[in-house]
Design a protein that fits this description.
- With 156 residues, the chain is an alpha+beta fold.
- It contains 5 helices and 7 strands; from the N terminus they run ααβββββααββα.
- The chain has a domain of 78 residues: IHF-like DNA-binding proteins (HU Protein, Chain A, Irregular).
- 44% of the residues lie in helices and 20% in strands.
- α1 packs across α2.
- The longest helix is centred in the C-terminal third of the chain and has 24 residues.
């Protein structure tokens, strides 16, 4: 998605292309000026934009192989938030990414109760009884293993 497509997407939500364009411009300008000033921009559920300083270092020109000196520089860095990562892994936005739960009161309890995670079925234990077909297959496998063991012993 490029800037024009983002504006078109916001136009569907906001109803006016002029408003959507000014919203995108204002957001980008605010993030750029704040990060350029050395401050973090933290958007809960989305991520953190920050300025990172790189020290001066020696590098190599890939065309000639000659060493060159690089001055120290500052670069912007983005670290995605947990809800953003979850949305990318799921392939679609999650409820937490769209509208994060708001904290209620000084206790810090969330306004909505979290849903319990789906319980996983326990893995079958090694002591579980096997069907007769599997028992026969296991006997053949153990016979093969025992034969291999005897051949190795004979070679020694």
């Amino acid at each position: 998605m490029n800037r024009t497509q983002l504006v078109a997407s916001l136009t569907d939500t906001l109803g006016d292309k002029k408003v959507a364009t000014s919203a995108v411009d204002a957001l980008l300008e605010a993030v750029q000026t704040t990060v350029a000033a050395g401050e973090k921009v933290s958007l809960f559920g989305f991520g953190v934009f920050e300025k990172v300083d790189r020290p001066a270092r020696r590098a190599r020109n890939p065309a000639t192989g000659e060493p060159i000196e690089l001055d120290e520089s500052s670069v912007p860095r983005f670290r995605p938030g947990a809800a953003f990562k979850a949305a990318v892994n799921a392939g679609q936005p999650t409820a937490a990414a769209v509208s994060p739960a708001r904290k209620a009161g000084a206790g810090g309890a969330s306004a909505t109760t979290p849903e319990p995670a789906a319980a996983k079925e326990p893995a079958p234990s090694s002591k579980a009884k096997k069907s007769p077909a599997k028992q026969a297959g296991d006997k053949k496998a153990s016979d093969k293993n025992s034969k291999k063991g005897t051949k190795k012993d004979k070679k020694r």
